[in-house]
Design goal:
Layout lengths: L6 H6 L5 H6 L1 H6 L6 H8 L13 H4 L28 E5 L2 E4 L27 H12 L6 E4 L9 H12 L6 E6 L1 H4 L6 H6 L6 E7 L8 H12 L4 E6 L8 H13 L2 E7 L14 H14 L7 E5 L6 E3 L5 E4 L4 E5 L5 E5 L1
Parallel strand pairs: 2-3, 3-4, 4-5, 5-6, 6-7, 7-8
Antiparallel strand pairs: 1-2, 8-9, 10-11, 11-12
The protein binds pyridoxal-5'-phosphate (PLP) and iron/sulfur cluster (SF4).
Length: about 350
């Protein structure tokens, strides 16, 4: 079975009606579309033909007309990656850790993606020289203890290229941890082969993988098997979830997801409030709604099942827990004051 890369492919695969496809053509021209063969098969087996966008898996990947609307507060670079990039492929926001982004392509294109203006199939990967320069930046900054490899999706790289990055980092004595963020275990579980898993570890370096999963239904048998291959290779897993209206913004869905993750040896790490990415307002609950949901989880599930609810402060100021101690509502109307990790205050609307 082939991967799908356009709205026409979705129609040909029976996942969209021609009318629904016509309604999203301009959206799909602006924001990339892709489904892996695995997801194509999974969606075909579960989609409610009358209103497929009600399916929490389908709605994460198949474009909807709502994306055509860009809300006034939405931004092209919602979390300020560009302003914090000292060399191509590196984002250095916190003293002790950097992001390394070796490529901008993904196996799937999530409709709520916070980097949607940057990721895509044409999205540039670092050339060999650029990757060397990015690694040299890490080598020259002894304060960097943790390297977060993200993208795009780093697990789209070949095992050979991944091994090269991991080896280079393990050769830097000040780097203790490499953390790879990926959607691949949930979107293309067969890609998590023993060879790929093996490429992620090296002596003298702790490898962690953060898997992006938003709904318990994503934890199918092939996905659970992929997670097990990583864990059984000695790689601790943490979970990264985006709080999404219509997909997981209710207590039952969050409970099932976090229990499912812990049951599969994935510690829920962050529950992200959706970033202000263009054309994603239909996915964004309010901060007050998110806070109420997270508060409700306290009594329902164990501490192992509790992620930290976080907001990435627009403008490149880093993440702040989206709890009242960090985020203060200013006389109602969705105006907030957020404290960043240095103690500085920022206005936020949401
Ligand atoms: C999210 C992020 C990190 C990692 O932050 P943690 O809170 O340690 O997960 C590092 N650098 C940048 C630029 C980030 O956006
Ligand atoms: S896999 Fe990650 S980077 Fe890629 S589209 Fe989805 S959210 Fe964005």
């Amino acid at each position: 079975m082939k991967a799908l890369h356009s709205v026409s492919d979705l129609v040909a695969a029976g996942l969209m009606t021609p009318d629904a496809a016509d309604a999203v053509r301009s959206v799909a021209d602006r924001y990339a579309v892709a489904l892996t063969p695995y997801l194509r098969e999974t969606l075909a087996g579960r989609t409610d033909a009358a209103d497929p966008q009600r399916d929490p898996l389908y709605a994460q990947y198949v474009p909807s007309p709502a994306e055509a609307y860009t809300a006034p507060e939405e931004r092209e670079d919602p979390i300020g990656d560009v302003v914090r990039s000292p060399v191509k492929g590196i984002v250095h926001r916190y003293p002790d850790r950097v992001l390394l982004k070796p490529l901008h392509a993904c196996a799937v294109y999530c409709r709520f993606c916070f980097r949607r203006e940057m990721v895509g199939p044409g999205g540039e990967a670092l050339t060999a020289e650029e990757l060397d320069a990015a690694l040299a930046y890490v080598r020259d900054h002894p304060e960097v203890w943790e390297v977060v490899v993200t993208g795009g999706d780093p697990l789209l790289l070949s095992p050979r290229r991944l091994r090269g990055i991991v080896q280079a980092l393990s050769d830097m004595p000040h780097v203790g941890v490499v953390r790879l963020h990926s959607r691949i275990p949930a979107a293309d579980p067969e890609r998590v082969t023993p060879e790929l898993v093996e490429a992620l570890t090296a002596p003298g370096l702790a490898t962690w993988v953060a898997v992006h999963v938003n709904h318990a239904d994503e934890l199918t048998p092939p996905v659970r098997a992929a997670l097990a291959r990583l864990v059984e290779a000695g790689i601790p897993l943490v979970g990264q979830t985006v709080l999404l209206k219509g997909i997981n913004d209710n207590a039952e869905a969050l409970e099932a997801l976090f229990r499912g993750l812990v049951r599969n040896r994935v510690k829920p790490y962050y529950l992200h409030h959706p970033d202000l990415a263009a054309g994603t307002s239909h996915f964004r609950p309010t901060l007050a709604e998110g806070q109420a949901l997270v508060k409700g989880l306290r009594g329902r599930v164990s501490g192992l099942c509790q992620p930290t609810y976080v907001l990435d402060i627009p403008g490149g100021h880093g993440k702040a827990p989206a709890a009242p101690a960090w985020i203060e509502e200013q006389d109602g109307e969705g105006e907030y004051r957020v404290t960043d990790f240095t103690g500085r205050l920022h206005d936020y609307r949401g």
